[in-house]
Design brief:
Blueprint: E1 5-10, H1 25-37, E2 42-44, E3 48-54, E4 61-67, H2 75-84, E5 92-98, E6 106-110, H3 118-127, E7 132-137, H4 147-151, H5 157-180, H6 182-189
Parallel strand pairs: 1-4, 1-5, 5-7
Antiparallel strand pairs: 2-3, 3-4, 6-7
Enzyme class: hydrolase
Protein name: Peptidyl-tRNA hydrolase
Subunit structure: Monomer.
């Protein structure tokens, strides 16, 4: 296995009609990472668009990917990319929207169930649960709105103003997983806002 490579996948639905939806925030984060790292996502035979980069000079190699399939069948292209790069789920990071987190919140975890997220569920079905998730909070729908309708709708005006900061935070968190490890990233991103960052050996 190529120990120095990671696969980072941003979930969403394909096509311009879905581009600004809450459900596509994972794709937005991967686009931000691609821009930062100077790579372009190109069509790949696995059923995704993929760009390759290093998170820092001499650092781990990463493949940034966005499935070309609809959200609920994200597993097939992810499985194909893991096979293409000879990786297992321990080297996979999936960035996705999370209803159960308040908007403008980023949380990191590995393992566990899908939490009602169909894209994550489909990836678990093909790769098992032991991959890292970058969970980007979009909040619960207001009133009695159906969650399925809510995730397939654009961000509200106030959310759109804060969205660049949220995407930047999620991209920062993903980069920190790659450079410092999951635990160090959790210590930073799970701390209350305004708390001092942890110091010491980041391993």
């Amino acid at each position: 296995m190529a120990d120095d490579r990671w696969l980072v996948v941003g979930l969403g639905n394909p096509g311009p009609g879905y581009a600004g939806h809450r459900h596509n925030v994972g794709q937005m984060v991967v686009a931000e990472l691609a821009s930062r790292l100077g790579t372009t996502l190109k069509v790949h035979k696995a059923g995704a668009t993929v760009g390759e980069a290093r998170v820092r000079p001499g650092g781990d190699r990463i493949a940034l990917a966005v499935p070309s399939t609809f959200m609920n069948v994200s597993g097939r292209p992810v499985a194909a990319l893991l096979k293409f790069y000879s990786l297992d789920a321990s080297k996979l990071i999936v960035v996705h929207d999370e209803l159960d987190l308040p908007f403008d919140t980023v949380r990191l975890k590995t393992g566990g169930g899908p939490g009602g997220h169909n894209g994550v569920r489909d990836i678990i079905a093909v790769a098992g649960p032991d991959f890292v998730r970058v969970r980007v909070g979009i909040g619960r729908p207001p009133g009695r709105q159906d969650p399925a309708d809510y995730v397939l709708s654009p961000f509200a005006k106030a959310e759109r103003e804060a969205l660049p900061s949220l995407i930047s935070d999620a991209a920062d968190a993903t980069e920190q997983i790659l450079t410092d490890g999951l635990l160090a990233a959790q210590q930073r991103w799970h701390a209350p806002r305004g708390a001092p960052e942890p110091t010491g050996d980041k391993g």
